[in-house]
Amino acid sequence: MAILRYIESCETSGIEASDHFREVAKTITAGKGAQRSVKDYMFTRYACYLIAQNSDPKKRRNCIAQSYFTVQTRKQEPIEERISEDFAIADRQVLRFCYPGFCTSAFAHR
């Protein structure tokens, strides 16, 4: 079963698979109104990403999912870069406040 491959991939990465792949029971109605319970899964966004990136790109739905995650990753990169820059600025401000003259003396020895 393909889902077991994705769960194994998650665990191999050192990530707790049960946090991302949740097995659930779903009741379905069969012929003549009979109901029975079947195994199903609920996925986190991370699990969906793993599945999409490891699926056959020749199938249209897989290709669409891979495209979606690629676009979302590209959207996130500038945001993370900005956050990193903001932290660097905040760190410099803390240094200036806590250690007046630190920034000027640190660069004076060049």
In short:
This protein is an alpha+beta fold. The chain has helices at 2-12, 45-53, 60-98, 102-108; strands spanning 21-29, 35-43.
What percentage of residues falls in helices of 4 or more residues?
55-70%
Shape: elongated
Mean pLDDT: 82
Tell me the total number of β-strands.
2
Major beta-sheet overview: 2 strands, antiparallel
So how many helices? 4
Note poorly predicted spans: none
Order of helices and strands: HEEHHH
Return Rg in Å: 24 Å
The quaternary organization reads as single chain
Strand content: 15-25%
Report on the architecture of this protein:
The chain has 110 residues and is an alpha+beta fold. The protein has helices at residues 2-12, 45-53, 60-98, 102-108; strands spanning 21-29, 35-43. Strands 1-2 form a two-stranded antiparallel sheet.
